[in-house]
DNA sequence: AAATCATATTAATCTAGTTTAACTTTTATT
DNA sequence: AATAAAAGTTAAACTAGATTAATATGATTT
């Protein structure tokens, strides 16, 4: 794998735990670098998710198609985030979600069949993953609270403040889907917000 | 700590990792057993959450009071589940949530200041917690999807099927709060469901 | 047994957000 | 530059769920 790409991952991990040079080399020898084009799928609903992926560059959406064929966006992932269908990955059962690239996207992929070896070789990784998943879980719980206690307009304003970088890169109708509202209603909210100031 | 109480925790942990007898003894010597009465608070909004708690018996609700004074229930916890404000616990910052007992509740508490020692003494616990948090995160993501893609009636039916034990122990108005609807609307849903069959 | 307090029901009115559909603007393709 | 395709806007009619308020049921206390 290209040295400088791996370094981005190591920098990220070293914010949580400190790896020795030997551990760093072991890690980089086991993970896989891959680049996807805009529109390509990293995971498809129904497949078994074989990789947990760290995003080096680009942007993905994780979404779910319901029985009526409606798309519901669960999350976006950009640089320094993770993407995959974790439920499918940890249980090796068919994925509920699709993960699709909204831009050319570079990833470092952690294959399922080596991740146990990796934990055995580098126990610190167990701690690292525990810590980032704890953070993700807390964020997810907070999103549930927001979905119940805030209006659509409030949720949009929150999203815009929290993820200013994401908003600019993504079409409005996908943001509407992420917020759980229609694109028409988001359009109305935006024009109200403009009128307000 | 009472031997048989500790055994419930060990049985639970041993479903994920296998502890040696020495590790089991170390663990039980560090955690704290405690019983709360109905109505008592385990965590209060604004406090720093000092314990991650395993529920031996009883039932708790985790909730958030919004700016308008409205209560929003984030989760219920019963036997063999965990309860706390994890966000507050991991960052040691003021809690967003309250955790209150809906019945007499027995807990095993993992104090914040010993948890690092515990990970050091029993590295398997790191793996154990990683695994249960992964599961919790996946469940949380699925709940977000349901909150967007299902109607209130569908969410209620799902809840009833998923947690039949919880429904019987808890007043309707709390279930309404958990589902993100008013108690009046839940009452309407229930009478519709009765009329349907 | 009466009184009180918490919980649940019902119904009328209201509103945040959806649906449908026509139109406009922006971006990509030839 | 012209055309097509994708994304975004506006507005009218509609609906899921909220609000308000009155009533009913069920526990708990005295």
UniProtKB/TrEMBL annotation, chains A, B:
Q: Which residues cross the membrane?
A: none
Cited SUPFAM superfamilies: cAMP-binding domain-like
Q: Name one Pfam family in it.
A: cNMP_binding
Tell me the InterPro entries matching this sequence. Answer: cNMP-bd_dom, cNMP-bd_dom_sf, RmlC-like_jellyroll
- Record domain Cyclic nucleotide-binding: where: 15-74
What protein does this entry describe? Crp/Fnr family transcriptional regulator
Organism from which the protein derives:
Flavivirga algicola
